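Request: Give me one sample?
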Amino acid sequence: MKVVGVVVLLLLVILCIPFVGPAIGLATFLNQAESPGRSVAVQGVLLNVYEHHGDKRDVVLVHGHPGSAQMMQPLAFALQALGYRVFRYDRAGWGHSAQHADGVPVNPTRHARDLLALVAHERLHEPLFVGYSYGGGVVMEANRLQPAVVGDVALISSVGKRPPARQPSLLGRLMGSPLFLRWAFGTDLTARQGAAAISAQFMYPQTPLPGTLEGFLATLALPDVPTNWQREGDERYVNFDDYRPNEVRGCVLVVHGDQDQVVSVDIAHYLASSIPAAQLHLVAGGGHGMILAQPDALALRVAAHDRSCRAEQSSS
């Protein structure tokens, strides 16, 4: 009986320690979360915004799901090094941004309206929009709502249409629960295991730049984010029909890794064939997390797209 008691006690300790880990200093990886930028009130919600100064054109970066502006930081630095003035922000409910308090479900359309309101608030003039993964869907929806504002677009590893209907697995439901997420991010040990598990699919077959994946994961453990993760757990499957890529207008670039294990490269071909005059660039050996593996190369591709859009507008 003593052995059983010891085993039970040990299991309880293992199960409980991650919940108090941050309070007793066992979750030092949380220190890798980026400090807040500045708060901007739009659409009744406070959004956390980062601005990187430059002399060239304004560029707005929109992150994926789940995620935060921190996952766009390497690309922002690379674009700033090329001279661009870059804005990135935490979408409502993610990172350091507040959630909408009115109880209305947050979906791509609402995120798009937040984006448009942010652009108006910052008085950005003809910016270039870069949407990553789910953020690509948000940018497409913003283009559909206000094509005159969202004209030049780069879609990186973007979603694009309704995925096949499927029931989430028991493991999937567990991993999307706030209780499990708080436990998983409660200590450095459990967080490292989580990072390895996520990296296996998210980054395959590439390797993230040092510290980038850990920093991204740290923002997912910020207060209220695990709850938001569950609350919006089905947002990727909401309003997918509203993307309507055939209605997207402007100068559009689709960039996708040919080894993407999260959003199939078939989606990139679908987007490029559906969006009028869209250009498709496939990255050989690129995975879904290539934004954390090769930001410099992606920045150069975005800059080339910017020049192409400018030349096209000058000649028309």
User: Anything to note?
Assistant: The mean pLDDT is 85. The two ends are 84 Å apart (CA to CA). The first strand starts at residue 38 and ends at 42. DSSP finds twelve helices and eight strands in the chain.
